[in-house]
Amino acid sequence: MNLKRYFYTILIMPLFTFLVCCTLEKSKKSLNFDDNQNSNYYLSQADNSSSSAKINWQLLAIRALIKENKFSQANTLLSNLPQNLDAEQQKEKLLSEGDIAVKKRKSFDLTQLIIETLTDSQLYRYYTIKLGLDINVKDIDAQAHDYIQLEKYVSETEKKQLLNNTWNFFRKLDSDKIGKVLVDENDNTLKGWVDLAYAYQEARKAPIPQDDTPETIDEKSENEKRLLKQSVNNWGIQYSDHPAKEIISILIGEQTLSVDANAKKIALLLPLNGSSRIFGETIRQGYMDGIKFFPQEPQQNVILLDTTSAPMDALIQQAQEQNVELIVGPLLKDEVIKLKELAPAIPVLTLNKVDNTSATTNKMCYFALSPENEAKDAADHIYSQHKIKPLLLVPQTDLGKRVAQSFAEQWSQLSANSSQAYVQYFGNTKTLRANMNRNVGISLAGNPILIDETSSGEIASTEYDAIYVYSSYEELTLIKPMLDMGANKTIGNSPAVTLYSSSKSHVANASNDFNYDMNKTEYADIPMIINQTDKVNTKIPSNIQKDYSLMRLYAMGIDAWRLTNRFNQLNFHQINFLDGMTGKLSTTDQCDVTRALSWQQYIYGEAKSDSKNE
After folding, report:
1. What's the gap between Cα 22 and its chain centre?
2. In angstroms, rounded to a whole number, what is the distance separating the alpha carbons of residues 129 and 135?
């Protein structure tokens, strides 16, 4: 009997060992993350597994959910994991918790992970998390060192993208910030990046021409390219084995990033249903029609995504799955804020403006038809006419206050604080009409606009030489006669005081009486409206021609299409680098696109171009 039991033991033990090893091997393999699989795949694998293998599949599902920006599901899975995880599972759990913390801009204790126990792929994730944490606290020195560490562990397939990201970080540093990077004398890689950043900044210090003719702009651009190429080539002699050598052609402009290639794949994010449908649809028409106006420019492969159809994280995931190279949009401000929080790896050209003081890991540029931008352009125009004391009339709303503040900030820079802008707020149309019926005019008085603060002090009556009105057409039809009533004379008809208005009050169906009453008033609008020709009008849909507010959005779509073809240039400070349909477009180092509008003057109902644009 004992002999029989011994015989069975000898027979069964190898089979048992074989099965255990297979199970362990399967468990080990399930920790290998496949970027081509989504969270549903891993969750289904977890449902069909048990014990340690099930936990491994759940950990991979969590990682996929984080990649898809489904943080709530990921957190739920994390909280339901058992306490008795093995060492590898515990590391995976902590790395996922760190990923979520970075995505949600929360703190995370990295000391929970012991660097010596991490594999190369885990070290890459570790330093990616550390980089995100250091970006959140704006630690320039730590970020620089993080990029160097990432280079040690990056896979070959992601290496070029990491080099591009590293260069984008160093390129944006000014001299003061570069000086904050502490370099060990033996760290040639970091020293090379720092010296390259200095070389780039020096090349950008070329004198800027005083006038802004196309010839001088081209001359400055070519001079800057020549100096940059020379500086980078000199740097390359000293750092012949530096990792950045792989992207030298991009640095000196001989090769552009992938987002600038012909027929690039674009995701256009717009609201195509709901209350904002008309805005999104009009911009879409302009974007798609761009090629009709500028057939010499590259074609684009456009994927249209409706922002009313799914949450922003799902739309980004969809764009990533379709290998999109650039996102254009979204349009609504709260969606832009959400997209910025999500920080997708894909570069973005938004169609609205938000605060961009906080850093993002990707390239995000801003193009908007903002009233604040128009107010700055008005300050430029009014100052160029040698006016010294402007009065603003704006609505008593948050928007009106932002317009006044934006005008005042620009005026302060132009006048070097030698003169000040003033503001008077008005009520809604109902209030204006009631005051007019009581023969209550608008006096030429206002509060000084204090920079970075709200207006304060007593209302000052003074001799203003310029009045800028930001209002609707209906409001302006009441404000102009009330100004005449308050001053007991016709305002704007003499050189002593000039009346200016915004594009908001310029409509296609203005009455003859309005045009006559606004004699000698100067107003701003986009070139597509100001410079209408039969050749251009035949390309614009007839329903859009009849509505200036839609035509501005249509023109914005065309300009967004053209900016997409020049996306790699948008980080550079350039004045009037593109004659757009919405204005002369300039760029800042913060990747903002600003506009200079066209100005005209009513002469008894006939619009006459201002000399500024001739």
Report:
1. 51
2. 10
Amino acid at 568: N
Residue 178: C-alpha distances to residues 6, 174, 185, 201, 237 (Å): 75, 6, 16, 10, 21
**Rounded to whole angstroms, how far apart are CA atoms 511 and 605?**
9
**DSSP class per residue in 82-129:** -S---HHHHHHHHHHHHHHHHHTT----GGGS-GGG--HHHHHHHHHH
* Distance in angstroms (rounded) separating the CA atoms of residues 270 and 285: 11
**Alpha-carbon span 144 to 127, nearest angstrom:** 11
How do residues 65-86 score in pLDDT, each as one tens digit? 887 777 888 899 999 999 899 9
pLDDT tens profile 366-413: 999 999 999 999 999 999 999 999 999 999 999 999 999 999 999 998
Residue 302 amino acid letter: V
Query: Does 448 sit behind a cis peptide bond, omega within 30 degrees of 0 on the bond before it?
Result: no
Amino acid at 433: R
Task: Give the Cα separation of 330 and 307 in Å (integer).
Answer: 7
Q: Burial, 496: exposed, middle or buried (Cβ in 10 Å; 0-12, 13-18, 19+)?
A: exposed
pLDDT at 27 over 50: no
Helices (H), 510-609: 512-517, 527-530, 534-537, 542-545, 548-564
Closest CA to 203 of 592, 497, 572, 613: 572
Tokens 């180092």, located at residue: 589
Q: How many helices and strands (H and E) does the chain possess?
A: 24, 17
Contact 163, 243 (CB under 8 A): yes
The number of residues in the chain equals 614
Q: Give percent helix, percent strand, percent coil of the chain, each to the nearest 5.
A: 55, 15, 35
Q: Any idea which residue has 């289904």 for tokens? A: 44
Residue 395 three-state SS: strand
DSSP state of 54: H
pTM of the model: 0.58
Contact 286, 558 (CB under 8 A): yes
Q: Compute the distance between CA of residue 527 and CA of residue 531 in angstroms, rounded to an integer.
A: 5
Q: For 25, phi and psi rounded to 5 degrees?
A: -65, -40
